[in-house]
Amino acid sequence: MCGGCVGTEYPERGTTCLEGGSFLLNFVGCAQCGRRDFVLVANRAAGLHGGEEIVTYDHLCKNCHHLIARHEYTFSVVDDYQEYTMLCLLCGRAEDSISILPDDPRQMTPLF
Fold this sequence. Notes:
GO terms for molecular function: zinc ion binding. By secondary structure, the protein is an all-beta fold.
């Protein structure tokens, strides 16, 4: 992975967890060939590990195939919530949790 290709290493992305694609605003250009072009997604693998879905792939320079970053996305169901995480030098770090119930108990206001 190459910190010279990105503006900010592991930027904080809040709840934005990407299962595919690239955060191009953080790509400043390839440290190897010097070009700023699209980023390829390669070596994509998805599988279940211990009840958790894990998707991994590499971000590569379109021109010279230099490895910019490795991307990891996870999805799991814990209790009554869908849990998402993302960790990538280019795309950043993020976590999200969404209730599987029609009304999220965390969002309900007390009646008294």
